[in-house]
Amino acid sequence: MGLSIVQGFTKSLAMTVLSEIGDKTFFAAAILAMRHPRRLVLSGCLGALIIMTILSVLVGWAAPNLISRKWTHHITTLLFLGFGFWSLWDAFNEGEAEELAEVEAKLGADMKSNGGSTKENYKDDDNLKKQNRPVLAQFFSPILLKAFSITFFGEWGDKSQIATIGLAADENPLGVVLGGIIGQALCTTAAVLGGKSLATSISERIVALSGGVLFIVFGIQSFLSPIQS
Protein backbone atom coordinates (compact mmCIF):
# COMPACT_ATOMS: atom_id res chain seq x y z
CA MET A 1 0.00 0.00 0.00
CA GLY A 2 2.73 2.44 1.03
CA LEU A 3 4.84 1.55 -2.01
CA SER A 4 1.89 2.03 -4.37
CA ILE A 5 1.22 5.49 -2.91
CA VAL A 6 4.86 6.49 -3.38
CA GLN A 7 4.86 5.17 -6.94
CA GLY A 8 1.66 6.99 -7.81
CA PHE A 9 2.94 10.16 -6.14
CA THR A 10 6.30 10.07 -7.97
CA LYS A 11 4.76 9.45 -11.38
CA SER A 12 2.10 12.10 -10.88
CA LEU A 13 4.57 14.72 -9.63
CA ALA A 14 7.01 14.17 -12.51
CA MET A 15 4.25 14.08 -15.12
CA THR A 16 2.56 17.22 -13.77
CA VAL A 17 5.73 19.30 -13.60
CA LEU A 18 6.86 18.39 -17.11
CA SER A 19 3.35 18.80 -18.52
CA GLU A 20 2.57 22.14 -16.89
CA ILE A 21 5.88 23.99 -17.36
CA GLY A 22 5.54 25.77 -20.68
CA ASP A 23 1.82 24.96 -20.90
CA LYS A 24 -0.74 27.61 -21.84
CA THR A 25 -2.02 27.87 -18.28
CA PHE A 26 1.56 28.35 -17.03
CA PHE A 27 2.05 31.30 -19.38
CA ALA A 28 -1.40 32.66 -18.55
CA ALA A 29 -0.55 32.68 -14.83
CA ALA A 30 2.78 34.43 -15.52
CA ILE A 31 1.17 37.14 -17.65
CA LEU A 32 -1.80 37.69 -15.33
CA ALA A 33 0.61 38.09 -12.38
CA MET A 34 2.28 40.97 -14.23
CA ARG A 35 -1.02 42.82 -14.52
CA HIS A 36 -2.84 41.95 -11.30
CA PRO A 37 -2.02 41.32 -7.61
CA ARG A 38 -0.06 38.09 -7.38
CA ARG A 39 -1.94 36.66 -4.41
CA LEU A 40 -5.24 36.81 -6.31
CA VAL A 41 -3.78 35.31 -9.47
CA LEU A 42 -2.05 32.53 -7.51
CA SER A 43 -5.22 31.75 -5.54
CA GLY A 44 -7.40 31.63 -8.65
CA CYS A 45 -5.01 29.58 -10.82
CA LEU A 46 -4.03 27.16 -8.08
CA GLY A 47 -7.61 26.68 -6.93
CA ALA A 48 -8.67 25.76 -10.48
CA LEU A 49 -5.77 23.33 -10.92
CA ILE A 50 -6.39 21.61 -7.57
CA ILE A 51 -10.09 21.14 -8.36
CA MET A 52 -9.23 19.88 -11.85
CA THR A 53 -6.70 17.40 -10.42
CA ILE A 54 -9.17 16.04 -7.86
CA LEU A 55 -11.92 15.69 -10.48
CA SER A 56 -9.54 13.92 -12.89
CA VAL A 57 -8.37 11.49 -10.20
CA LEU A 58 -11.97 10.73 -9.20
CA VAL A 59 -12.82 9.89 -12.82
CA GLY A 60 -9.73 7.69 -13.10
CA TRP A 61 -10.47 5.99 -9.78
CA ALA A 62 -14.05 5.22 -10.87
CA ALA A 63 -13.05 3.94 -14.32
CA PRO A 64 -11.99 0.42 -13.21
CA ASN A 65 -15.40 0.03 -11.55
CA LEU A 66 -17.13 0.78 -14.86
CA ILE A 67 -14.67 -0.97 -17.20
CA SER A 68 -12.60 -4.05 -16.47
CA ARG A 69 -9.14 -3.32 -15.01
CA LYS A 70 -7.58 -5.14 -17.95
CA TRP A 71 -9.05 -2.62 -20.38
CA THR A 72 -8.23 0.42 -18.24
CA HIS A 73 -4.63 -0.84 -17.98
CA HIS A 74 -4.33 -1.20 -21.77
CA ILE A 75 -6.01 2.18 -22.39
CA THR A 76 -3.64 3.86 -19.93
CA THR A 77 -0.63 2.28 -21.68
CA LEU A 78 -1.84 3.54 -25.07
CA LEU A 79 -2.54 7.01 -23.63
CA PHE A 80 0.98 7.34 -22.24
CA LEU A 81 2.60 6.15 -25.48
CA GLY A 82 0.30 8.34 -27.59
CA PHE A 83 0.95 11.46 -25.50
CA GLY A 84 4.66 10.69 -25.54
CA PHE A 85 4.87 10.65 -29.33
CA TRP A 86 2.50 13.65 -29.48
CA SER A 87 4.85 15.66 -27.25
CA LEU A 88 7.87 14.64 -29.33
CA TRP A 89 6.03 15.67 -32.50
CA ASP A 90 5.23 19.07 -30.96
CA ALA A 91 8.86 19.50 -29.90
CA PHE A 92 10.17 18.97 -33.43
CA ASN A 93 7.42 20.73 -35.38
CA GLU A 94 6.37 23.76 -33.32
CA GLY A 95 8.39 26.95 -33.01
CA GLU A 96 9.82 28.19 -29.72
CA ALA A 97 7.59 30.47 -27.64
CA GLU A 98 4.55 29.63 -29.79
CA GLU A 99 2.23 29.01 -26.86
CA LEU A 100 3.51 32.11 -25.03
CA ALA A 101 2.72 34.27 -28.07
CA GLU A 102 -0.73 32.70 -28.37
CA VAL A 103 -1.57 33.34 -24.73
CA GLU A 104 -0.22 36.90 -24.88
CA ALA A 105 -2.35 37.62 -27.94
CA LYS A 106 -5.46 36.21 -26.29
CA LEU A 107 -4.99 38.09 -23.03
CA GLY A 108 -3.98 41.24 -24.91
CA ALA A 109 -7.19 41.15 -26.90
CA ASP A 110 -9.11 40.66 -23.66
CA MET A 111 -7.45 43.73 -22.15
CA LYS A 112 -8.27 45.85 -25.20
CA SER A 113 -11.90 44.81 -25.02
CA ASN A 114 -11.91 46.01 -21.40
CA GLY A 115 -10.57 49.42 -22.25
CA GLY A 116 -6.85 48.73 -22.29
CA SER A 117 -6.33 48.92 -18.52
CA THR A 118 -2.75 48.56 -17.33
CA LYS A 119 -1.28 46.66 -14.41
CA GLU A 120 -0.87 49.88 -12.48
CA ASN A 121 -4.53 50.74 -12.92
CA TYR A 122 -5.56 47.33 -11.64
CA LYS A 123 -3.25 47.61 -8.64
CA ASP A 124 -4.41 51.14 -7.82
CA ASP A 125 -8.03 50.08 -8.03
CA ASP A 126 -7.36 47.05 -5.88
CA ASN A 127 -5.51 49.07 -3.24
CA LEU A 128 -8.31 51.61 -3.07
CA LYS A 129 -11.09 49.06 -2.90
CA LYS A 130 -9.65 46.33 -0.71
CA GLN A 131 -9.59 48.62 2.34
CA ASN A 132 -13.36 48.90 2.18
CA ARG A 133 -14.12 45.32 1.16
CA PRO A 134 -14.69 42.42 3.54
CA VAL A 135 -12.38 39.41 3.29
CA LEU A 136 -15.03 37.26 1.57
CA ALA A 137 -15.60 39.91 -1.11
CA GLN A 138 -11.86 40.11 -1.75
CA PHE A 139 -11.72 36.33 -2.09
CA PHE A 140 -14.37 36.40 -4.82
CA SER A 141 -12.85 39.38 -6.62
CA PRO A 142 -13.20 39.58 -10.43
CA ILE A 143 -9.43 39.10 -10.80
CA LEU A 144 -9.42 35.85 -8.82
CA LEU A 145 -12.45 34.56 -10.70
CA LYS A 146 -10.83 35.52 -14.02
CA ALA A 147 -7.64 33.63 -13.14
CA PHE A 148 -9.72 30.65 -11.99
CA SER A 149 -11.88 30.49 -15.13
CA ILE A 150 -9.00 30.96 -17.58
CA THR A 151 -7.02 28.19 -15.89
CA PHE A 152 -9.93 25.78 -15.37
CA PHE A 153 -11.25 25.92 -18.91
CA GLY A 154 -7.72 26.02 -20.31
CA GLU A 155 -6.96 22.72 -18.59
CA TRP A 156 -10.27 21.07 -19.48
CA GLY A 157 -9.59 18.35 -22.04
CA ASP A 158 -5.84 19.08 -22.01
CA LYS A 159 -3.54 16.08 -22.39
CA SER A 160 -2.27 16.52 -18.82
CA GLN A 161 -5.84 16.14 -17.52
CA ILE A 162 -6.45 13.01 -19.60
CA ALA A 163 -3.07 11.60 -18.53
CA THR A 164 -3.99 12.21 -14.88
CA ILE A 165 -7.22 10.27 -15.38
CA GLY A 166 -5.27 7.39 -16.94
CA LEU A 167 -2.65 7.47 -14.20
CA ALA A 168 -5.31 7.38 -11.45
CA ALA A 169 -6.93 4.38 -13.13
CA ASP A 170 -3.67 2.44 -13.01
CA GLU A 171 -1.96 3.75 -9.84
CA ASN A 172 -2.91 4.56 -6.25
CA PRO A 173 -5.39 7.50 -6.47
CA LEU A 174 -4.17 9.08 -3.22
CA GLY A 175 -0.58 9.15 -4.45
CA VAL A 176 -1.69 10.55 -7.81
CA VAL A 177 -3.75 13.37 -6.30
CA LEU A 178 -1.00 14.35 -3.83
CA GLY A 179 1.67 14.34 -6.53
CA GLY A 180 -0.57 16.27 -8.91
CA ILE A 181 -1.47 18.97 -6.38
CA ILE A 182 2.14 19.47 -5.27
CA GLY A 183 3.31 19.57 -8.89
CA GLN A 184 0.62 22.11 -9.79
CA ALA A 185 1.51 24.23 -6.75
CA LEU A 186 5.22 24.27 -7.67
CA CYS A 187 4.60 25.20 -11.31
CA THR A 188 1.93 27.82 -10.62
CA THR A 189 3.93 29.47 -7.84
CA ALA A 190 6.99 29.61 -10.11
CA ALA A 191 4.91 31.14 -12.91
CA VAL A 192 3.34 33.79 -10.67
CA LEU A 193 6.58 34.77 -8.91
CA GLY A 194 8.82 34.48 -11.95
CA GLY A 195 6.49 36.28 -14.33
CA LYS A 196 7.30 36.74 -17.99
CA SER A 197 11.07 36.75 -17.38
CA LEU A 198 10.84 33.11 -16.28
CA ALA A 199 8.34 32.21 -19.00
CA THR A 200 10.54 33.56 -21.79
CA SER A 201 13.64 31.80 -20.43
CA ILE A 202 11.99 28.37 -20.66
CA SER A 203 12.66 26.34 -23.79
CA GLU A 204 9.32 24.88 -24.85
CA ARG A 205 11.14 22.42 -27.09
CA ILE A 206 13.26 21.00 -24.25
CA VAL A 207 10.22 20.73 -21.98
CA ALA A 208 8.21 18.98 -24.72
CA LEU A 209 11.07 16.56 -25.40
CA SER A 210 11.45 15.77 -21.70
CA GLY A 211 7.71 15.29 -21.29
CA GLY A 212 7.53 13.08 -24.37
CA VAL A 213 10.33 10.84 -23.14
CA LEU A 214 8.69 10.62 -19.68
CA PHE A 215 5.31 9.64 -21.16
CA ILE A 216 6.94 6.95 -23.32
CA VAL A 217 8.84 5.58 -20.30
CA PHE A 218 5.56 5.44 -18.35
CA GLY A 219 3.90 3.71 -21.29
CA ILE A 220 6.64 1.06 -21.54
CA GLN A 221 6.59 0.54 -17.77
CA SER A 222 2.80 0.16 -17.86
CA PHE A 223 3.02 -2.29 -20.78
CA LEU A 224 5.57 -4.48 -18.95
CA SER A 225 3.89 -4.37 -15.52
CA PRO A 226 1.31 -7.03 -14.56
CA ILE A 227 -2.34 -6.09 -14.43
CA GLN A 228 -3.46 -5.62 -10.83
CA SER A 229 -6.48 -7.62 -9.84
Automatic annotation (TrEMBL):
Keywords, in A-Z order: Membrane, Transmembrane, Transmembrane helix
Q: Has UniProt tagged this entry with the keyword Nucleotide-binding?
A: no
Question: Where is the protein localized?
Answer: Membrane
**What is one cellular component GO term in this UniProt entry?**
membrane
Q: Which residues cross the membrane?
A: 40-59, 71-89, 135-154, 174-194, 206-224
Predominant subcellular localization, coarse grouping: membrane
Tree of life domain: Eukaryota
Q: Which InterPro entries match?
A: GDT1-like
Q: How does it sit in the membrane?
A: Multi-pass membrane protein
Q: PANTHER family under this entry?
A: TRANSMEMBRANE PROTEIN 165, TRANSMEMBRANE PROTEIN HTP-1 RELATED
Q: Which family does it belong to?
A: Belongs to the GDT1 family.
Q: What is this protein called?
A: GDT1 family protein
Organism annotation: Forsythia ovata
